[in-house]
Structure formats: structure tokens, C-alpha cells
Amino acid sequence: MRTVLVVEDNDLMRQVLVSHLRAGGRFDSVIEAATGAEALVAAAQHHFAAVVMDLSLPDVRGSSLIVALRASSPRARIVVFSAELHGRIEADRYGADGFVAKGAELAELDHILDPDSAT
After folding, report:
1. What would the pLDDT profile of 25-38 be if each residue is shown by its tens digit?
2. % of residues, the chain, pLDDT over 90
3. What DSSP designation does 117 have?
4. DSSP state for residue 106 in the 8-state scheme
5. In what order do the strands lie in the sheet with 98-101?
6. Among 30, 42, 44, 99, which is most exposed with the fewest C-beta within 10 angstroms?
7. For the whole prediction, is pTM greater than 0.70?
8. Which candidate, 36, 53, 42, 39, places its Cα nearest to that of 112?
9. Nearest to 57 by CA among 74, 40, 44, 43
10. Is 9 buried (19+), middle (13-18) or exposed (0-12) by CB count in 10 A?
11. What is the dihedral of CA 38, 114, 118, 54, to 10 degrees?
């Protein structure tokens, strides 16, 4: 079973991502988390094929969450989805597989999640 975790504290943005990922048919299950704590609970219960996450969360910095999620799901493709100016640098430094700026076409996200697919 291919499961993706979406970690985003903005309700509307999280719903957009969840709807997009569900409609794409690439994942069997989409799990949502609004905080780092919720993401860690989900990580204790599931192994993820992918994680799409923001860096700015209300309870933890995304960079530390990348490290924790990588430990629980080492093969997961982790994509940072952020509006932060230096988010790409932070994502690279902490081992994310990719970065997509908020406001970009969601096809960029699809390409990073599945680089072998035609987009």
C-alpha cells in the first residue's frame, strides 16, 4: 500500500494538497496532519511512500520533522512545500528529496513525487 502524509497547518492549503494527491491515483491512502506532533503520531502508525510538508508548523520546525520522518520512513520521498524564501536551502540541508514553492503548479509536486512519470 502506497501512503502519503500531508503536513500543513493551513486548512485550505492542506485540503488542496490532499484533494490533488487523492485525485492523482498514485497513492492508496492520504493521511493529513496539521502539526508536527500529529505527523509524528502518524509516522509511528504508518510507513509512508511520500511526505509533503511545510517548514513552518505551529509546534515544530519542519527541518527537525524531516529528520524524524526520515528515521521512521527511510525510503519515503520527502517534499517540502513552502513559501519561505530560503526553504529550498533548508530542505536540501536536512535531506528532503525536493522543494516546491507554494503558488507553483502542482505538476512540480507530482514530478518530484514520481520523477519517472510524464508530466
Report:
1. 999 999 999 999 99
2. 92
3. S
4. H
5. 29-33, 3-7, 50-53, 77-82, 98-101
6. 44
7. yes
8. 53
9. 40
10. middle
11. 40
C-alpha 25/C-alpha 36 separation (Å) is 26
The cell numbers describing 53, all together, are 510538508
Side chain identity at residue 16, one-letter code: V
DSSP string, 2-67: -EEEEE-S-HHHHHHHHHHHHHH-S-SEEEEESSHHHHHHHHHH---SEEEE-SB-SSSBHHHHHH
Matching residue, cell 504508518: 46
Least Cα distance to 91 among 117, 60, 65, 113 occurs for 65
Report the first-to-last Cα separation within the chain, whole angstroms.
23
C-alpha cell at 45: 502508525
Q: Is residue 22 within 8 Å of residue 110, measured between CB atoms?
A: no
